[in-house]
Amino acid sequence: MTFGFAPSSAASMSTSADLSAASANPLARMLEPAEWAAAGIPLLRNPREVVSGLHSRHRPRPATAIVAVLDPDERLRASASFTRRPAPADGWMFRNALLAQLRRVIPHDLRRRTPVRTAVLLYCREGDARWTEEDGAWMWGLRDACTLHGLRCGAYITLTRDGWQVLGEGRGGRRPNADSPPEPFATSESPLPAPRTGGAASEVLRRAAAR
Questions:
Q1: Which one, of 29, 66, 28, lies nearest residue 155 by Cα?
Q2: Where are the beta strands (DSSP E) in the chain?
Q3: Helix (H, G, I), strand (E, B), or coil: what is residue 153?
Q4: CB 84 within 8 Å of CB 209
Q5: Which stretches does the entry tag as region Disordered (predicted)?
Q6: Phi, psi for 94 (deg, rounded to 5)
Q7: Number of domains observed in the structure of the chain
Q8: Is 92 among the domain residues?
Q9: Calpha distance 66→17 (Å, rounded)
Q10: How far apart are CA 136 and CA 39, in angstroms?
Q11: Which domain holds residue 124?
């Protein structure tokens, strides 16, 4: 027989209030650059090749997010893009959008003890390469979506008119950029079906913007 103590009603109310406040506060669902850098995100061996391949395949314009899954040899196995609707940056909404796209393009790896494949996120936006709260929300969303789909959380990359930047690593380049024409596909890519766009994730963000 075991004995324990039930939490007081006051403590339960306090915990419930804290959780409710956190869920209502989008700022609680974002990662600062220092948190991201300390999370042990695996480094890309050739980030420019990855960026060029995704840019050529999806041809993103500002407000386009591209989520891609890489195998252990950094070959592209699946990718999908969608447009972020005008709405406050919220990591929870971004997580749902990314997870919906991952479920459309590749099976989960939740049965594995250790993730083998890695998901990276390329987000094309206005402005410069400096971190923004919107970036922090995408980072939070990517990390959570990877956990729920059995993947390793990989790099978060911004693409602007100034070029591309791997946040938290200090690596970047001027091409490709948001205005540049697509380059030939990177040699490390495997043949893939046509890229997928829109879908449930776009609908999720559209409904969020309409509220």
A1: 66
A2: 64-70, 76-83, 118-124, 152-160, 163-166, 171-173, 196-197
A3: strand
A4: no
A5: 168-211
A6: -65, -40
A7: 1
A8: yes
A9: 36
A10: 13
A11: 28-173
Q: Give the mean model confidence (pLDDT) for residues 26-34.
A: 82
Q: Across the chain, what does the average pLDDT equal?
A: 81
- Kindly report the backbone phi and psi dihedral angles of residue 22, in degrees, each rounded to the nearest multiple of 5, phi listed first: -65, -40
CB contact at 8 A, 70 and 132: no
Secondary structure element (H or E) that encloses residue 22, with its range: helix 9-24
d(CA 160, CA 54): 14
Q: What is the pLDDT of residues 119-166, one digit of tens each?
A: 999 999 999 888 999 999 999 999 999 999 999 999 999 999 999 999
Distance CA 159, CA 125 (A): 6
Confidence of residue 204 (pLDDT cuts 50, 70, 90): very low
Q: At what angle do helices 200-210 and 91-105 cross, to 10 degrees?
A: 160
What token pair was written down for 44?
Answer: 């890309």
Q: Are 150 and 115 contacting, i.e. CB atoms less than 8 angstroms apart?
A: yes
Say if CB 100 and CB 200 are below 8 A apart.
yes
**CATH code for the domain of 121:** 3.40.140.10
**What distance in Å separates the CA atoms of residue 115 and residue 101, rounded to the nearest whole number?**
18
Q: How confident is the model at residue 1 (pLDDT cuts 50, 70, 90)?
A: very low
Please state whether the peptide bond connecting residue 115 to the residue before it is cis, i.e. omega within 30 degrees of 0: no
- Taking the whole predicted model, whether its pTM rises above 0.85 is answered as no
